[in-house]
Amino acid sequence: MDRADLLLLGTTIGYALALLHLIVSLWLGRMRFGRWPFALPLIGGLGAHTIWLVRAAMRFGHVPIISTQEVFALLAWAILVYYLFVQRKRRWTDVLGLFVLPIVLLFVLVALVSTGFKLLPQELEDLLRMPALPLHIGFMMLAYAGFLLAFLAALMYLLQERELKRKRFGFIYRYFPSLSTCETIGHRSLLFGFLMLTFGIGTGIILLRRSDPVFWRGDPIIVLALITWLFYLIVVHYRLAAGWRGRRAALLLIVGFLATAAVFTSARLFGHIL
Amino acid sequence: MTIVLVGMNHRTAPVEVRERLAFADAELPEALRQLVDGTTITEGLILSTCNRVEVLAVTPLSERAALERIRAFLSQRHQMPPGEYAASLYHYVDREAVRHLFRVTAGLDSMVLGEPQIFGQVKEAYAQAAAAGTVGKTLHLLLPRAFSIAKRVRTETAVGTMAVSVSSVAVELARKIFEDLRERTVLLIGAGKMAELAVRHLLASGVRHLLICNRTRERAEQLAAHFGAEVLSFEALTSAIARADILICSVGGTEYVVRREHVAAAMLARRHRPLFLIDISVPRTVEPSVGQLANVFLYDIDDLEQIVRAHLEHRRSEAARAEVIVDQAVETFMKALRSLEIGPVIAAFRRRLEEIAYGELERHRRYLGALTPEQERALHHLLDGIINKLAHPAIARLHQAAREGLRHPEDVSFLELWRDVLEARDPSRPASRHSRSSP
């Protein structure tokens, strides 16, 4: 096993330990062991994760975004960083992590078991040397992280709303943050994701104009990106202008996220880079 | 040393008896000094709250003497013949007294299971007794232990979590919906007692804006003046609902006061921000189908009471876990207490044996002549070996006795017996009362 794999393995173990600690704490009902058994493996894992990404970037001299391994590793990294940003003023070990960390862990696991490219496809060489590309990739990844968090917050909102309506209380009632908190996290994440998506598409257009125009014209991924942007524009508009709230807004976020995630995943499966 | 606890609580004594036996804060120092006479009672602490009166004491004599002394103290202090309250008293000795104290401190013996106030009250009682100088080695070991056990119960079980009254459940639900209640507006429809209680709870949780709607404006203005609220007319109900986040309805009568069309219109006006309706009137005065509207959460009195029952049930199941923690802690404490008692006895025993052995050596040294250092060392090894071999079974027996409990109820005192054994063999001290040489 070479050193890069060890780093990724360390990342996986760190995240798994943090998740395990979170589950056990919630299971026992209280934080019995303090927050360090949670924060330490998480931060350690994030450190190893970051080093791995930097190494991958330095090896080929470009953003680590080409192989499946790199895409998943970068995506997991963006999600975790954004999650920690959201949690910065909240309790570290709360139930939101129970939704986010499994996804992060899953992505890192996918990265761990898939193999990286040994050789770079010739036609991508030029594109990857463009200075705007890291920006574009960074914005897109953060947009994805924002929309994912918005989606998870909306999911938590709906689950909790259902319990409050049914008046049968269990785990959710005891541990979920309030409806208002779920709504706030969802709202801010939506705005953040939309902003990042706008920047991402902007930088993407710059990239398009500079790279071979023929190669990119009519690419379905660009059409999809614009549709996504329009969809979220409408959601943002209704929230800000018409004050859509609660259940309906949450449902919209969930359906929207699932649809775009499905579309982009299938687009990638058919051989396009993100 | 025996620990005894005599007391009464909300289950064993009616309030008329409890209030007559209660101690005012100001009289505690004097009462404590009166209780601790230095012969029958060497250490004492009095816990007096509205739900319980407990006297915790340490005695070097028998438990019966201590119990009689405490009862006499209570009667004398409160000018009450024992017959009037004796039936309400319970008493615990040693292990059971320790367990009782641990349970009380952790809130497991409280009327509202797991409530936290009692912790502070015990702490205060401890501070009072310490200030009055009636706390000694035993209570200084016992009370801090009780506090740490109570904290452990609090962090490791959920016995103190979850609201267990209708009003506090309403507040908890409001927090589940709105998180921070400070910027929220409460609308009170009707002005009944229950509604007032719920409003008090909400105001205590930080709510600042209160609107009141009542059929008779006079009563509404009274309440409004009391709480600093705004009075609205009954006709403006829809616009009032549009302004409020939490609505408490407590009106008499048999017809629905808050109807579906009111709330539906208000929800449009408030742009579907969540609305929490609490209907505490019986019969209900909020149309039940209001609860089906999106972003509206309607709870009636039955719903709230059901939640209270579920939470109490949850607390009870957590209390079972807490009892396990207490049981373990009692065992650990009793061991610590016994080794505190037995340690000096064993040390004295060993010291006595060494005095005898080395004393004999010195007495016979002149017959030994000059000794080389090796011979000297060998002699010491010899004596130490004999001491150890002779003492070992006795010390093991003492340790075993300490583990299993020092005495049976009918024994005078196992420890005292050992002290006598040691003293009786000591020629330098006056003969003890068991010695044959005494007159």
CATH superfamily of the largest domain in chain B, by name, is Glutamyl-tRNA reductase, N-terminal domain
Mean pLDDT of chain A: 82
The main pleated sheet of chain A reads as: none
Write the CATH architecture name of the largest domain in chain B.
2-Layer Sandwich
- Radius of gyration of chain B over alpha carbons? 34 Å
Shape of chain A: flat
Query: In DSSP terms, counting alpha (H) and pi (I) runs of 4 or more, how many helices of chain A?
Result: 11
Question: Biggest interface, which chains?
Answer: A-B, 23 and 25 residues
- Strand percent estimate of chain B: 5-15%
As a percent range, the share of helical residues of chain A equals: over 70%
User: How many domains would you count in the coordinates of chain B?
Assistant: 3
Largest sheet of chain B: 6 strands, parallel
Structure commentary:
The complex is a heterodimer of chains A (274) and B (439). Chain A is an all-alpha fold and 274 residues long. Chain A has two domains: 1-118; 121-274, no CATH class. Chain A contains eleven helices and no strands. The longest helix of chain A has 35 residues, at 132-166. The mean pLDDT of chain A is 82. Chain B is an alpha/beta fold. Chain B has three domains: 2-156, Glutamyl-tRNA reductase, N-terminal domain (Beta Polymerase, domain 2), CATH 3.30.460.30; 166-308, Rossmann fold (3-Layer(aba) Sandwich); 344-424. Chain B has helices spanning 15-21, 28-35, 63-78, 95-105, 117-132, 137-156, 166-178, 193-204, 217-227, 237-243, 260-269, 301-364, 373-404, 414-424; strands at residues 2-9, 43-48, 52-59, 90-93, 185-189, 209-213, 230-232, 246-249, 275-279, 296-300. In chain B, the strands form two sheets. A six-stranded parallel beta sheet of chain B has the order 7-6-5-8-9-10, sandwiched between helices. In chain B, strand 8, helix 11 (260-269) and strand 9 form a beta-alpha-beta unit. In chain B, helix 2 packs across helix 5 and helix 10 packs across helix 11 (260-269). Chain B is elongated, with a radius of gyration of 34 Å. Residues 408-412 and 424-439 of chain B have low confidence and may be disordered. The interface between A and B is medium-sized, with 23 and 25 residues.
